[in-house]
Amino acid sequence: MLAALDLASGKMVYRIRTRKRFGEFLSFLKILRARWPGEKLYLICDNFSPHKHPDVAAWAAGNDIELVFLPTYASWLNWIEAEFAALRYFALSGTDHHSHAEQGGAIAAYVRWRNARAQPKRDFAPESTIRTWTGYMINVA
């Protein structure tokens, strides 16, 4: 499954593919580009190798998409990871799907339910000291 979370609406966009190579990821980027034409897209990605493939980087650069990579072992910083956890819990845990198609149908039903109730992702940790800190930024080389 390849998925993206639109922070402005809170909705997920996804595609289920048999593999997750750079070609499938590039195809997914084209779907996202078509969905938001004329806008600069910032995609937060983990360090999965297909995300960093030279063909992906070249296409993204030429189509006003900036791939922003999280630090290694920090995928938990990506808001979509919590969505994946919920999807596993509500659509997959404790199930015994007889086929990949049936499993895909359960995922699709959950995402439809979730997107119907989605809300924008904003005001995350409004009381955090990171958001209210007034210290000095120091750049050390």
From TrEMBL:
<dbReference type="Pfam" id="PF13358">
    <property type="entry name" value="DDE_3"/>
</dbReference>
<dbReference type="InterPro" id="IPR038717">
    <property type="entry name" value="Tc1-like_DDE_dom"/>
</dbReference>
<protein>
    <recommendedName>
        <fullName>Tc1-like transposase DDE domain-containing protein</fullName>
    </recommendedName>
</protein>
<feature type="domain" description="Tc1-like transposase DDE">
    <location>
        <begin position="1"/>
        <end position="91"/>
    </location>
</feature>
<dbReference type="InterPro" id="IPR036397">
    <property type="entry name" value="RNaseH_sf"/>
</dbReference>
<dbReference type="InterPro" id="IPR012337">
    <property type="entry name" value="RNaseH-like_sf"/>
</dbReference>
